[in-house]
Design a protein that fits this description.
126 residues, alpha/beta, Rossmann fold, 5-stranded parallel beta sheet, 33% helix
């Protein structure tokens, strides 16, 4: 039986290092430091879980069409990995914007920084 694949997309210095937890829970982890790299891998190895930082698209050119850094990834997951469970890590001040994103693309879990191992483990439970 194959191990479930987990994408970790780290775009914030507050992102917790869950490598030991993911290994203990039986996940294969692919780490990315950008959405672009995760999108490139998506077609070849669709994930079962995605753990990613939420960054609100505050005052950007794309704000009219995108809520955050995760919009394109979530749209792509619908096509390439519709079963993937997305766990978003966000700052408390951004939770209202995460709710807008969740209305468009249902999220598996939303965790508020600082995130600890117990919270991650609970979110990864089947």
């Amino acid at each position: 039986m194959n191990k479930p694949l987990l994408y970790t997309i780290i775009e914030s210095p507050t992102h917790p290092n869950g490598a030991a937890l993911y290994q203990r829970l039986g996940f294969d982890e692919l780490r990315f430091d950008s959405q672009r790299k995760a999108l490139a891998a998506l077609k070849k190895q669709p994930p079962d879980y995605v753990v990613a930082d939420f960054i609100y698209a505050f005052s950007t050119y794309y704000q009219a069409t995108n809520i955050s850094n995760l919009d394109v990834l979530l749209h792509s997951l619908v096509k390439y990995a519709p079963q993937a469970r997305v766990i978003v890590l966000a700052n408390k001040d951004d939770l209202t914007h995460v709710d807008k994103l969740n209305a468009i693309h249902p999220l598996h879990a939303v965790l508020t920084y600082p995130v600890n191992e117990a919270q991650l483990e609970a979110a990864l439970a089947p």
